[in-house]
Design brief:
Order of helices and strands: EHHEHEHEHEEHH
Radius of gyration: 14 Å
Structural class: alpha/beta
Number of domains: 1
Number of helices: 7
CATH class: Alpha Beta
Largest sheet: 6 strands, mixed
Strand content: 15-25%
Number of strands: 6
CATH superfamily: MoaB/Mog-like domain
CATH topology: Molybdenum Cofactor Biosythetic Enzyme, Chain A
Shape: globular
Strand order of the largest sheet: 2-1-3-6-5-4
Helix content: 40-55%
CATH architecture: 3-Layer(aba) Sandwich
Length: about 160
Amino acid sequence: MFTVGILTISDKGSRGERQDESSPVIRGCLAGLEAGVREYDIVPDEREIVSGKLKEWADEARLDLVLTTGGSGLGPRDVTPEATLEVIDRLAPGFTEAMRVESLKITPLAMLSRAIAGIRKNTLIINLPGSPRAVKECLEVILPTLPHAIEVLQGKSTECAR
């Protein structure tokens, strides 16, 4: 069993002006894994707030996985990648590379994603898109690797195990 945090980044969502439709999709996709969502929050597109929440969940809550949704595009308020880069110790680019490759098979708009993935201490942080449909498509790509990735981070497995 591994622990998960879902962080929705949305100005309108944080003000209660828009319903968060992506986090229920994330929860649904995780249902088939031995994963428990322990933290959830909606925050505005503010770099300091996003990076603060990521640090809190990695350092204090010690979550195994944090999935962000929203704020990873080209918009002027999209700061999720920068906030994530600010807090991670090491990049884990394979996750976002795989998501973009598979998403490009569906829509050319996938190349507008600036999502990143990385590790802070023993927490894997992955940026997902904001759209529920894109969240589902991206998670379907990376879900099979998440249990093993978490085991490696926890020191329970090696990267070579198959």
